[in-house]
Amino acid sequence: MKLPKEVSIHEIAMLIGGKVQTDHDVKVDKVCFSPLEAQPGEVVFLFGQKILDRLDDINASIKIIPTGTKCSTPCIYVDRPLLAVQKVLTFFQPKRYLPEAGVHPTAVIDPSVEMGADVAIGPYVVIGPKTKIGNKTKIMASTVIGGQVEIGDDCLIYPGCLIADHIKIRNRVILQQGAVIGSDGFAYVTQKESNLERRMRGNWEMVDESNPHLKIPQIGTVILEDDVEVGSCATIDRATMGATTIGRGSKIDNQVMIAHNCKLGEEVLVVAQVAIAGSCTVGDRVVIAGQAGVVDHLNIGKDAIVQGQAGVMKDVEQNDVVSGAPALRARDHMNNLAHIRRLPKMYDEVRRLKKQLDELQEELKKRAELVR
Q1: Which residues sit opposite 306 in a β-bridge?
Q2: pTM for this entry
Q3: In CATH terms, is domain 2-92 a member of 3.40.50.2020?
Q4: What's the pLDDT score for residue 313?
Q5: Beta bridge partner(s), residue 230
Q6: In this structure, how many other beta carbons lie within 10 angstroms of the beta carbon of residue 339?
Q7: If DSSP codes are grouped into helix, strand and coil, which group holds residue 252?
Q8: Rounded average pLDDT over 217-243
Q9: Predicted confidence (pLDDT) at residue 23 exceeds the cutoff of 80
Q10: Of 125, 168, 167, 156, which is closest to residue 143 (Cα–Cα)?
Q11: Integer angstrom CA distances of residue 14 from 17, 77, 268
């Protein structure tokens, strides 16, 4: 990545809070993200023992490395390398082409909409009645916003987002492309007892007749608290009653599904393709990794970790790490996998022991006949 201007090792160190290891005022004008391809004139980030073991093979002019690493060339020591990446990229990030303050002439905005100062509305945006939009919020092309929506200050809504009626979005919220906030929760009931309900109470006598699904109106809302970010094509359903809430500072990745009446705490991380069923409560700082599934009406305690592709079917205690389907404590799950891997060998041993036992029984039988 080409930097806007040439910078010195001391300027970079000051920016990221690092400690310089060199007597020279080394300067660079590029950031390289492939360490082994780095060239003179570039700065490179190095963390992870495999790449640090090849430190002498890296030709970058400046190396940003973890504190305590031995290095004989110009480098900057940092305690948290990934935080250093965040600081450098935040400072040098290229210009984003966001809409300027004002309303594009193709936008369709109800006359009752209230907008704060320096709001930017892009092309083909539609905003429904009685909606309020806070100061400096930017809404990009082809986004559709319903009626009586409240959007706070400094929000950034990328193209193609859908925000349904009565939704509340606080300050500095980011919605990535195609996010859907406030679609109806998935809730139906039948006039008569359904075959599914019969199975659930242990009755397997099925009735072969029509029993239509009747939609339960979803009259609740969604509340996104301050500093929430929702990824592309993620869906957060409105509550049946009350509110589906996403706590302050939580981050939702792409293609995530959060069902009606869920309550996520603060600074939760939900990674791609996770599905959380209705009425779940997720504590502060929980991490739910990619493709995990959580059944309805569960509680996941603070600081718990749900590992990738886990199937959570019961409550997860505070601080626990769970994996597998059905999800178990990660250590138990790994022990079970280790036992499963041993099964072929154990099977062979059992066959061998059974053969020996059969031979012993046959020998004992012969001896008993001789005694008689």
Answers
A1: 288, 322
A2: 0.86
A3: no
A4: 96
A5: 175, 252
A6: 10
A7: strand
A8: 97
A9: no
A10: 125
A11: 5, 11, 31
Query: How is the chain split into domains, by residue range?
Result: 2-92, 161-326, 335-372
User: Does residue 94 have a cis bond before it (omega within 30 degrees)?
Assistant: no
Sign of torsion over alpha carbons 305, 311, 317, 322:
negative
Give the other-Cβ count within 10 Å of 180's Cβ: 19
- Give all strands of the β-sheet with 102-103 in edge-to-edge order: 102-103, 120-121, 138-139, 156-157, 174-175, 229-230, 251-252, 269-270, 287-288, 305-306, 321-323, 328-329
Estimate to the nearest angstrom the gap between the alpha carbon of 99 and the chain centroid.
28
Q: What is the pLDDT of residue 248?
A: 98
35 has pLDDT over 90: no
Q: What tokens appear for 76 in the block?
A: 């900057």
Partners of 213 in beta bridges: 190
**How does pLDDT run across 85-133, given as a tens digit for each residue?**
899 888 888 888 899 999 999 999 999 999 999 999 999 999 999 999 9
Cβ within 8 Å of residue 192, ≥6 positions away: 211
Q: How far apart, in whole angstroms, are the C-alpha atoms of residue 76 and residue 10?
A: 9
Return the C-alpha torsion angle 159, 162, 166, 167, nearest 10.
Answer: -60
Token pair of 229, please? 């970010």
State the catalytic residue, choosing from 10, 166, 213, 260. 260
Q: How far is CA 76 from the centre of its chain?
A: 31
H helical segments located in 229-301: none
Whether 260 is catalytic: yes
pLDDT band, residue 183 (cuts 50/70/90) = very high
pLDDT digits (tens, 9 = 90+) for 234-245: 999 999 999 999
> 215-219, 279-283, 357-361: which range is least confident on average?
357-361
Q: What is the pLDDT of residue 288?
A: 98
Phi, psi of 321 (to 5 degrees): -120, 120
Report the distance separating Cα 61 and Cα 29, nearest Å: 10
Question: Is CATH 3.40.50.2000 correct for 161-326?
Answer: no
3 or 307, which is more confident: 307
Neighbours of 100 (CB within 10 A): 10
Put the strands of the sheet holding 150-151 in their side by side order. 114-115, 132-133, 150-151, 168-169, 221-224, 243-246, 263-264, 281-282, 299-300
